[in-house]
Specification:
With 453 residues, the protein is mainly alpha-helical. It has 20 helices and no strands.
């Protein structure tokens, strides 16, 4: 079978990533139903999300190295099969512990999807065509933000939250079928993967997240909290130190010498931490605080998603022609304004006046941000290292979301009531504004960036 055409490669990349994005939106809208059936309160809801993000963030770096060393197609297929198996395990989980364990496995499989998908794009397209392809990838994978809440919410309301985790079977099957003729170049003889680094990274993140999630319940006086926090920070520090000396690091620190790469990743941490915080709190509060059904809570963010689908490809093309700095500055600041508009939510809840305006403004800012941010970061690195560059950027975004969600208990004061929802809106707005400022101060167009390799 001949090698797939560029357009087919783009669709393989889109569908492969779609699976991971779909699951994230389904999980948020299913959280209240999971709590009602399995129990555990806010802590269980946080672990359902963060269990996935821990392994996703840590192993995405390994997957990036594997994508460059062993081949994008092989890594993508491993991720798709593993993700499907873990989805079935989630659907039959009898306890919160079993559910979180299955989410850990699912995150590990998901780590192999996004970096290999983006690496396929960056190794197939170049220049303005690459920016446009990434914009198309962004706009269509954002469709998961429609499909996930709608189908997930309907299944939660009409059947069971368990079925909501099985809706990714179709895109998995379609991607495996499309990728039949996708071949990789010969494997490098010196290919190595830093497994010790992966263990240190996972354990470090796990300790920090455990302390942040369990602290509101156990208190700082409980010995497990400071021990987990200190041990996690120490192991993550050891991970960074190892990356300076490992012969095949999973996070090559020399990438961060490129100005657009390190600046873009600082902006990524701020923006995606805010996005994760916003998505979690909005989905849960609209059901538990405002009394909406899971389906209606899923529909609440529909305006944001529609704007993303309509605008992302065009914005990606414009950023490829004009440079990304203006888009990456204005986008997060506009998103922050949208988050601030959610302060209008009141006890006498009205979606049309209290939520919809914020969602529209938020969606406009998000459309301006995502494609330019992604294409700027990946375009600043040599295409031969696109797999690890994509993995590093995606890992940073997931770790930012991981820490943000772990800190929800501290932000809301242990209970997600209206006051806690308002506090979260302010935190989200502050993070996004900071992301815009960082982009304005740090991002340069390729013509100005002498560091670009």
């Amino acid at each position: 079978m001949p090698h797939p055409s560029p357009s087919r490669v783009l669709w393989i990349a889109i569908l492969g990533s779609f699976v991971a994005f779909l699951d994230g939106t389904v999980a948020n809208v299913a959280l209240p139903a999971i709590d009602r059936e399995l129990g555990g309160g806010l802590a269980t809801q946080q672990w359902v999300v963060d269990g996935y993000l821990i392994t996703l963030g840590a192993l995405m770096l390994v997957a990036g190295s594997a994508s460059d060393a062993l081949g994008r197609a092989l890594v993508l297929r491993i991720g798709l099969v593993g993700f499907g198996v873990a989805s079935v395990a989630i659907a039959v989980a009898p306890t919160p512990e079993a559910l979180v364990a299955a989410r850990l496995v699912q995150g590990a499989a998901g780590a192999f999807l996004v970096p290999s998908s983006l690496a396929l794009i960056t190794s197939t397209f170049s220049g303005p065509a690459q920016a446009k392809a990434i914009g198309t990838w962004t706009s269509i994978t954002t469709g998961a933000m429609i499909v996930g809440p709608l189908l997930g919410g309907a299944l939660v309301d009409l059947a069971s939250w368990r079925l909501a985790f099985l809706i990714n079977v179709l895109p998995i099957g379609a991607t495996l079928w499309l990728a039949r003729g996708l071949a990789d170049p010969p494997r490098r003889a010196d290919a190595r993967i830093d497994l010790l680094g992966a263990v240190l990274c996972s354990a470090g993140l796990g300790g920090i997240v455990f302390a942040l999630i369990e602290q509101p319940r156990l208190g700082w006086a409980h010995p497990a909290i400071p021990v987990a926090l200190v041990a996690g920070a120490a192991m993550f520090t050891l991970f960074l130190l190892r990356q300076r000396t490992a012969p095949r690091p999973i996070l090559p620190l020399d990438l961060f010498r490129v100005r657009n790469f390190w600046t873009g990743n600082v902006a990524t941490a701020l923006v995606y931490g805010a996005l994760s915080l916003n998505g979690f709190v909005l989905a849960v509060y609209l059901q538990e605080g405002a009394g909406l059904s899971a389906t209606l809570a899923g529909l609440a963010s529909l305006p944001t998603t529609i704007l993303m689908i309509l605008l992302s490809s065009r914005i990606g093309a414009l950023a490829g022609r004009w440079g990304a700095r203006l888009f990456m500055t204005a986008g997060p600041i506009i998103m922050g304004a949208g988050s601030a508009l959610l302060l209008a939510v009141a006890p006498d809840f009205d979606y049309w006046w209290q939520v919809l305006p914020g969602m529209v403004v938020f969606g406009l800012g998000l459309s301006l941000t995502v494609s330019p941010l992604t294409s700027t970061i990946l375009g600043s690195i040599d295409p031969a290292r696109s797999g690890i560059a994509s993995a590093a950027n995606n890992a940073i975004s997931r770790v930012a979301g991981l820490v943000a969600i772990a800190a929800i208990g501290t932000i809301v004061g242990g209970e997600l009531d209206l006051a806690g929802f308002h506090r979260t809106c302010l935190v989200v707005a502050g993070l996004l504004a900071a992301g815009g400022v960082v982009s304005w101060l740090g991002i340069r167009t390729p013509r100005q960036d002498a560091e670009r390799p």
